[in-house]
Amino acid sequence: MGAAIFFGSLYCLVREHTFDWEWLFFLGVIFLAEMFPTKVPDAEIELTVTAPLVLGMLPSHHVAATIVVSTIPLLIVPFITQWGVSFRWLSPLVIYNAMNHVIAVAIASLAYVMAGGPFIDPALADFGTDSRLVLCLLLWAVIYSNTAALICATGTSIHIGEPWRVSAQRNLRWCLPDLFVSVPFAILFVSLYMLYRPWGILLLLIPFFVARQALNLHARYVTTYRETITALGTYIQHHHLYTKGHLERVADLAEKIARQMQLPVQSLMYIKDAGLLHDIGKVGVDEAVLDKTGQLSEEDWAMIKQHPARGAEILTQMGYIECIVPWVRGHHERPDGRGYPDGLKDGEIPIEAAVIAAADAFDAMTGGPDKKDTRVYRAPLTIDQGIDQVRFGAGTQFDPRVVKAFMAVMAAREEKSDG
Amino acid sequence: MDSILELLRTPAFAISLAATIGAAIYSYIYLPRRMGRAYRRSLLTLARAIEAKDLRAAGHGERVAEYVSAVARQMKLPKKMTRTLEFAAFLQDVGNIRVPHAILNKPGKLTDDEMRHLQSHTIIGEEIVEQVRFLKDIGPLIRHHHEAWDGSGYPDGLRGEEIPLGARILAIATAFDAMTSERSYHGKMDEDTAVAELKSAAGRKFDPEIVQVFLKVLQKYYRNDRSP
Predict the structure, then answer these.
(1) Angle at A342 between CA A339 and CA A344, to 5 degrees
(2) Which of A224, A277, A296, B19 is most deeply buried (CB count within 10 A of its CB)?
């Protein structure tokens, strides 16, 4: 069907002999846009400005030209950017994507025409953006992105056998943010084009590339830190094997408790990292001490008591997550002042540290749901016994507010497993 | 064409031009710098974590990094490779995390079993750094920094030029620093003894050409500072 529309439009163009050098210009610009996508931090997608460009082209060049011109780069670019990937493997994907695009543009343009969207003669110098144009462009963008997302979802769900609803939801999630970018951009684009011809668009390209560079660098910045955190996580797991699994469970539980307590956004963002890295200072503790079954000597205790401070020291280096340093340092403090390393009292301990303390203690006592990671020095408690222990510790070992949230989290979990 | 000239004269254009230039400075000068700092900081974090495990490692990474970058400059290696080498110098012993304290700090000779344990640190180190994209290039250097020129090293027993160039440089710098600073297995040596040791191991343990370069660098950068 896509192919039919594509060649149909091509035929229309050839028959009308309305060749225009500006098509080549648009072809070039869309080509560039496709060549340099922008990565979005923390999400595995790449944005291109193709949609707004196509949208900008539509009112002045009619449907057929828009379809043909915008599809050609889609057919060529992937082979350039993914040079070296097997041609046989790539071709079906590229054709599928291009046809997806053709169908989406056609349906959206049909809606645009039916809604009475204006077509402007590029020869006319006089031009004003009226509200109808804006509304129709908006309509186009909504229909285009939804159609494209749905076709894409159908493809994935057939291909990997995932329920259609799930694929559709995942794809549609990006439609709205996409609209916020593409519609204003397209309107700006049409106006500039009408006023200053292709020059207006060239003016836009420079800021576009600057913005793209900024976004890409920011994405790299974030990934660098994320990866460093992962590497540190692996590093500590290599040190001592019981920590594997334990750290992840502490991170999860701490996050749940923090959510329950409605801590500030920044805390919610980083508490998982803090949970994962809270024991990083333990790399300085001899594994023989960690594995000791008998009574610990004075010296052993001194070594163990250093680990929160040492962990904090390691993490200070890393500017990006500076806020978790006091949380890591405080994760063995107790409200009654008998904790270490600083012997802080109630009110002096960061609440996030208290959250990690409770999650850490609970997981250490129960050894997690699968009981595989039990500690050498004592037999694991059952989940209920663990919960009781945490409750008994409220006010002395644990912050009462944290204990309250912890109980709520545990109750919710039980309900879930019962139902 | 007239319309474009008109456009260039409008205040709106001037404002957006200024904004664009500002944004360009931000994203082409400030952001790359911040990126560089970010690399450095996350590197230091990892280095600090290594020192926490092995106290004797303190300062070792920095000194080795200094040596290798001087050698790289002398050999006129590309800038990117120099940086990779410096990073590798900091992180070469990251795999020691898997080696128990008892072995790391053992004063006497190691048993075969303990030796195998110690040698595994090159492989584990590679595994850890491979998770960080900007450190990916240093993986092979970490894996091979204990290979020997005559093939008697570990873990893969590579010989001669099969060993990555960076790993060959790293091996010499590490050995020299280990000899001249307080590291476990042997006491501290003075520099002349260490130089003699390097010379005698050239062609056996180390790439002879790089040993020459290293000695030259040592002469140039380090001896001069101390002579007066």
Answers:
(1) 65
(2) A277
Average confidence (pLDDT) over A97-110: 79
Q: Residue A108 contacts by C-beta under 8 Å, 6 or more apart in sequence?
A: A139, A140, A141, A143, A144, A147
Q: How far is it, in rounded angstroms, from Cα B189 to Cα B184?
A: 12
Tokens, residue B157: 């027993």
Q: Verify whether the Cβ–Cβ distance A196 to B3 is below 8 Å.
A: yes
- DSSP labels for A19-51? --HHHHHHHHHHHHHHHS-EEPTTSS-EE-SHH
Give the per-residue pLDDT at B228. 37
pLDDT digits (tens, 9 = 90+) for A340-369: 888 888 888 999 999 999 999 998 888 754
Let me know: does A249 contact A276? Beta carbons within 8 Å: no
**Contacts of B58 by beta carbon, 8 Å cutoff, 6+ apart:** B51
Amino acid at site A224: T
Report pTM: 0.68
**What type of residue is A17?**
H
A356 at B interface, C-beta within 8 A:
no
Structure tokens at A372: 């595989």
Sites in chain B below the pLDDT cut of 50:
184, 226-228
Asked if A229 contacts A162 with a C-beta cutoff of 8 angstroms, the reply is no
Query: How far apart (Å, rounded) are the C-alpha atoms in residues B226 and A116?
Result: 85
**A47 - beta bridge partners?**
A38
Residues in A closer than 8 angstroms to B10, CB to CB, are none
Q: In whole angstroms, how far apart are CA B152 and each of A230, A286, B114, B211?
A: 34, 31, 18, 18
Q: What pLDDT sits at residue A219? A: 78
Q: Residue A136: how many CB atoms within 10 A of its CB?
A: 21
